[in-house]
Amino acid sequence: MEKVKKKWFVYILRCEDNSLYTGITTDLTKRFEAHISGRGAKYTRAKKPIRIEFFSTFDSKSLALKEEIRIKKLTKIKKELLCQSYQLSPF
Predict the structure, then answer these.
(1) Contact status, residue 28 vs residue 57, Cβ threshold 8 Å
(2) Whole-angstrom distance, CA of residue 76 vs CA of residue 89
(3) What are the residues facing 11 on neighbouring strands?
């Protein structure tokens, strides 16, 4: 039996104060629910996430972590542009 590889997600959340939070997970729905219920990251316990603005999938944790780091280094304006381009995508 072939082992099923986990998909990893890099995601950006919009918080109530309009800030953006970036993270990774293997279960995007479950992780978002954890953030909303206050069981997520310390940042989102204080800032209250309201929606997922962006996500991308990866075949390995290593690739997802590299992308998370890359996104976290972006300025807020560039993160906003990334989210905007994602929403405009027809896919």
Answers:
(1) no
(2) 20
(3) 23, 55
Tokens of 33: 């629910």
| Separation CA 60–CA 90 (nearest Å) | 25
Residue corresponding to tokens 């995007």: 28
- The CATH architecture that domain 8-88 belongs to is 3-Layer(aba) Sandwich (3.40)
* Rounded-to-integer distance, Cα 3 and Cα 76, Å: 39
Q: Is the pTM of this model over 0.85?
A: yes
The residue ranges of every structural domain in the chain are 8-88
Helices assigned H by DSSP within 1-91 = 28-37, 42-47, 61-72, 76-88
Q: How far apart are CA 24 and CA 31, in angstroms?
A: 9
- Tens-digit pLDDT profile for residues 5-17: 899 999 999 999 9
